[in-house]
Every structure is written in structure tokens, then in C-alpha cells.
Amino acid sequence: MKKLLLILGVLILSINISYSQTDICGYQQPPYNPIEEQQIKDYISSNRTNTTITVPVVFHIVWQTGHPEQNVSDAQIISQIDALNRDFNLLNTDAANAPSIFTPANPNIQFCLATRDPNGNATTGIIRRQSPIVGWDPGNYMAYYNLGGSEAWGAPSSSNPCPYLNIYVCNLNGSVIGVSSLGIVTVDYAYFGTVGVLGSNYNKGRVATHEVGHWLNLRHIWGDANCGDDLVNDTPTHNAANFGCPTYPHKSTCAGTPTEMTMNYMDYTYDQCKYMFTQGQVDRMRATLTPTGSNSGILTSLGCTSPIYTTCVVDNFGVTVPDSGKFRVAWTPVPGATSYTLEYSTLYTFGTAKVSLNVTSTDTVITPSPTSINTSNLDIYYVKVKANCLSSTFTPQLVVNVSKNIGINMLDPILGDTTSGGSSGGGGTTLICPDTYEPNNTLTAPKSISTNTDIFGTISPLNDADCFSFSTTKPLKNVQITLSNLTIDCTLQLYKSDGTLLTTSANTGTANEIIIANNLPQASYKIKIFSNGVSDSTNCYKLVVNRSKSAFRVTGDETYYENIDTELLETKIYTVDGRLLDLNNTDNLSSGIYIIQYVYEDRIEFEKIIK
Ligand SMILES: [Zn+2]
């Protein structure tokens, strides 16, 4: 019991520390707040309730590296929850020891280990942080991860009502064995719960009972002053804190010398000698758990409502193209869903380039917007939907090609696998792609594509090759070609329009194949995608050609090609006497001697020819 020895040391030496010298509790009494006191009076006079209120609790065990004894067991944590539920529901048998002049009251407050975290995910309600911090001063520093603690759930230091009670267990410095500060409760690891390594005077979990009393707006019974006021009408005036187990009746030195309620949880007596709250204290605590009270966030907390993972999943999700420029999304209604969030995007990654709709129907026809991302007659959209329940996630997305042609039903719908994550289980995200580019097998018949546009295709059947063409312009002479979403080892090649190979990508496996080609002359170019001996008819690759005025930078795995020839800008034909002819080539020249002037980006060259 080193802490108690330290208390005595503090008493004798009057060491000046920031909190009261005699405290075993680091609670700092707040100033009198008339608005809050009026709220409590109003609660008592007209809004009093006695229904059970449940408080979700998250325990943060912050233990010092090398001190596993501070990392208290789950059993010790559960024993503390049990102790709180005992004391805050007047289920403690020692309440029967109360002298007849005092009446223990029942707060009717239940505590539960949180089962849902602030993000809606399942939790044990126990967070463990191994920390380099040797010991903690009273305060709420332990509620911050960056200070070596564990980030509190909710908003402990703001005015926002917190939906959790955050209880910290750590090694408190000095004589303090418990603190309630700025919305969190802290208990020293050696004074916590009812099992584990505990001294005989602090083995009933009542340090936490006392601190949770503070969290519920109770003051020390002596009002932290000589004959101070705890703002509760039915507690006697104490001249000071009591320690140990005072013999009854213990008389106050204050006016009237009332018998002190040394058995009140808000005194400093030993665990085995404190066992009651008064009705006035119960009112004060429960007033915080009202819509206008400081702990109103508890009332609407879902902290002890387990997340539901099995019933809020959209199943049988499908997309069809019923008409030109539209697509239809349908799925099986989800029990318990209040609405659905349907999202579509021209980007596989969605990001911000998406349209998000809140719908109640499970069968919706969409005329997509934007429709002009692609300049071709096809828009490719990714579609996903989420049922809005207590906890839900999006379906795997489907891909749909939407025809913008005048005619109807120009394209077959492209459907994806819909089984992933469904209640029937199984399945991954599988996109089924059309082999839209199947005729473009050779470099002599490439499919012309737009730049800065996602192109999707498959390498199927075996030994398939897909060939595309694009152009550069004078300013947009730098090109990056990216082949991604690969499920098989593919190769990407860049050719000049005459079929001359410029470069071949080098990556193996399903890593992206990226070619950077800078300083290309203004011309048409060709791309070839192929794979040796493997095919995949199900999953589509994604190809995109980006052009830029400035050179693309090589950062890692790209294959780099740079045209080191400067561009021929102009060809001029002169007669030997220096007369400029209005001709672009030499085909139609009559017999004679001519001077050809070649104007390059960086130089001019001359050539003499004889026709
Ligand atoms: Zn206290």
C-alpha cells in the first residue's frame, strides 16, 4: 500500500501539488454553475425519472512497457463492471449496514461493456495501449494517443455529449488512486476491480464507484472545503474528508455537529466502509442523464447495441440496359432497411467523381449523369448499392456499358457476380467484361481510342491480342500508357504508325504495365496488349493513355522511352539561285538541281538533290 504511505507523507510534509494535498482522488471541484443547478432543480421538481439507464463503458488499459502487472486482465475489468452495477443498483448487501438515520438510495444505472465502437464496428469494449509513460498525473492526458495514452471515444474535453463512459486504468502518480477529469474516469491499476492483485482495503471496486459518482456530477461529501457544500440536501455537512473506517457515530465539527455520513461513496473511507448514495445524490446523478444534462449523449448511445452484420446486406443485385443511355438497377429488398444508397461512377475507384442517390425503391432506372466523360458512344459505369440499416456496407460494384446511340437496346447488359458478401455467403468481386475490342487483333486494324479515357477489355481467347491507336499533338507530345486491373501477366507495347516497335513494358505477373514515352513527334501511334499462353475471359484490364505538355516523370516501375530526335518542323525547297518553291515535296520537280532546307526544332540542315 505504497500509495497510502504517500498520502500520509503528503499530509505531513504539505507538499504543494496542483491538486489538493490530501486527495486520494484527483477530482477538481468545478465552480458553482447556477444554470446547471437550476437544471437539477427542474429535474427534481418536474422531470424526475426512475427507469433504468444504461451507460456504455469503454475501458482503456494504458500500461507501461516492462510492467505487465499494469495490463490488468479481462476478468479484473469485468469484475469492475460488476461492482459498478452492484453499487449503482443498490444490490450491495453491505447497504444493510447503514445506520437507521441514513437511507441508501438506488441510482438504477446500469453499466455495460461497449459492444459497438464509435465507427459502428464490433468491439470488446476493452482497449489496451502499451505506453512508454512511467506514471500519470491527474488530468485527462491519458485520453490522447499522442501523449502516450489511448484516444477517448466520443468527445471527453468538448461540450459535445459523449455517448460512452471512458474509464482509464493506468499507473497514477503520487497518492492519487482515482481521478474524474474532463469527462473521463481514471483508476490506478492496483485499486481497480475486485479480483487481481489488490490490497484488502481497496478490493471492492469502489474507487471506480467514487469516480463515476464524480462523472455523474457528484462532489465530495465535504464539498472540498472545511464544512463545504456538496450541493446535495440530504447529506450531512462534513468538516473534512474521512479516511479508513471511522467508528459510528463520527461527529462533524461543523455547525450543529451532525453525525457524518462516513459510509457515503463520496467520502475517502475504505472500500469496505462505504456503501451508499443518498436520494439527493441519485437525483443529481440522474439529472445528468437527461436530454438537457451533461451526459445526454448516453441516452442515444448505440454503444451497447451490437452491430448487425448478417441481415443488412443487399443480395441479388443486378444491372441491365433497358434503353439507350440508361441502366436499370434492381435487388432484393433488405429487411430492416429504411432506404438504400445507390452510387455510380465512371471511375473504378469512385472517389469524388460519383453520383450518390438515396432511394427507397429496389428497382431503379438511371439516366446517368455525367454522360459525357467518354467521347465514344459508350459510357462505362460502375454501380454499387448499400442498404441503410444500423450497420451496412456497399455491395461489390458492377460494371455496365451504357449505349448512347439513338437506337434502343444496342448493347447487351453486362452483369457482374452478385454473391459477394451476401447472406448466402461466398463469392468475390467479379467483373464480367465484354470483349468489345475482339476484332482489333492486329496492328493493321487497331481500334482508335480517346486519350485520358478508361478502356476496358479482356485477353481472350487464348493468344488474343488487342491493338489500339491514338495520336499525339505538337503540345501534347508526352504520353503515359497505363495497363492495370490485370489478372494475368500481360505485355504492353508501343509502336509507331508504320509498325516500328518503340518499346515493350517489362513488368511481370499482374503488376501494372506502364510505358512513359516523352517527346513523341506529332503522329499516330499504336498500342498492343497481349499475353503469352494465358487468357481471362472474365476480368477486364483497364487501359488509359494520358497525354501531357510536360514530360512524364519516371518514378519506379515504368518502362521509359524518349524520342531523342528533334522534330522536323518544315521542309523548304529552293532552286540553286535561291528562289523558294511553293512545294512540299520533291515528287513533281522538273529535272535540275535543288536545295532542300530541313527546319528542325533545334537546327536547320540543307541537302542538295539532282532530279
Ligand atoms: Zn473524489
Distinct bound molecules: zinc ion
Structural class by secondary-structure content:
mainly beta
Tell me the number of strands: 28
Largest sheet: 6 strands, mixed
Tally the structural domains. 4
Specify the CATH class of the largest domain.
Answer: Alpha Beta
Radius of gyration: 38 Å
C-alpha geometry: elongated
How far do the termini sit from each other? 113 Å
CATH superfamily of the largest domain: Collagenase (Catalytic Domain)
Low-pLDDT parts are 1-22, 371-375, 404-432
Helix amount: under 10%
In short:
The protein is mainly β.
Notes on the structure:
The protein is elongated. It folds into four domains: 23-29 and 36-219 and 280-298, Collagenase (Catalytic Domain), CATH 3.40.390.10; 315-403, Immunoglobulin-like; 447-562, Jelly Rolls, CATH 2.60.120; 568-610, no CATH class. Strand 20 and strand 21 form a beta hairpin. It contains five helices and 28 strands. The protein has 611 residues and is mainly beta. Helix 2 (34-47) packs across helix 5. Residues 1-22, 371-375 and 404-432 have low confidence and may be disordered. It starts with a helix and ends with a strand. The strands form seven sheets. Strands 1, 2, 3, 4, 5 and 6 form a six-stranded mixed beta sheet that branches. A five-stranded mixed beta sheet has the order 16-18-23-20-21, with no helix packed on it. 37% of the residues are buried. Zinc ion binds at residues 25, 27, 210, 214, 220.
